Please model this.
Amino acid sequence: MAEVLSQSQIDALLNSMKGSDGEQTKETFEKKPNYRKYDFYSPKKFTKDRLKMVRGIYENYARLVSSQMNGILRASSDIEVMTVEEQRYHEFSNALSDNDIMMMQELLLPDRSKNPPILMHISQILMVNMIDRTLGGIGDDREIDSSYKYTDIELTLYRKLMGYILGATKDAWSNYIKMELGEERLEENPGLFQEISMDEPVAIVMLNVKLQEIEGRITVCIPGNLLTRIFSIIDRRKNVEGAYEPTGEEEREAIFSRIKDSPLTVRAQLGDAQLSLRDICSLKVGDVLDLNKPKESDISLYIDQEPWFEGKLGVHNKNVAVKINKRIHEQSSGEAADK
Model:
């Protein structure tokens, strides 16, 4: 008959089983990968490649602004890109206090579409010390009261300094898209800004600025609609450039299709006359100028200062008109062939 276990042996066996299960559970928990939660109610609008491109653009932007600040403030500065991520606009808006000031810069894209401006906020401690150095101070104040408000003179200098900082935007994007800078606006109450809805996706670029012993941040908010429009123009430009890859007749048609809508000036020239300055000064109403051409002769049609056609002057629907008879370059080529 099998040996019967005592109560102490049974307890020891149960404890050993619990310990082994606990260690196994702990090891399993430690090996479990840590996944980042994804909000399916607010899906991401921009891919990692798009945000990586924006990061590269603003790394170039950081170098340009750092060079400008070194010259304006006569102090060494170091600017680096901390993060580039997609958020909702309310996350950017809620991070601003009542005393914060926000600058807006309109970007004029090649298609001249109407888009919301980019927004920029600079930390108060950094801006106060920048203004101090602009006025001849040392700019080493490390403690700024959260209730501090800018004076009228400081607001003027604020706009001036932010104009330099925002002005580098055009050069930073120049490798990808040609844009112009539009109107700059200063918003003293960011909560009143309503050109962007609270749930609209935006790209937030956070720059860390070190100005000697002072450290602060510059935050750039790019509206999702604006960024989408920029990406579409960049993609379209790439596709159009690809049209030049074929050779021969296909390349000719691709080039011609792009210039079809170009405006050209068409001018009809009746003839030429050469007068002295004395004759021109004595001209009056009723005088007749001899153009040295028979009245039934053809007149020339010029397209952007180049002669292209010859035709007869007449009337069409009670308006002066020219009936084209021949192309000038065809005539020239025919004469050359006869010779």
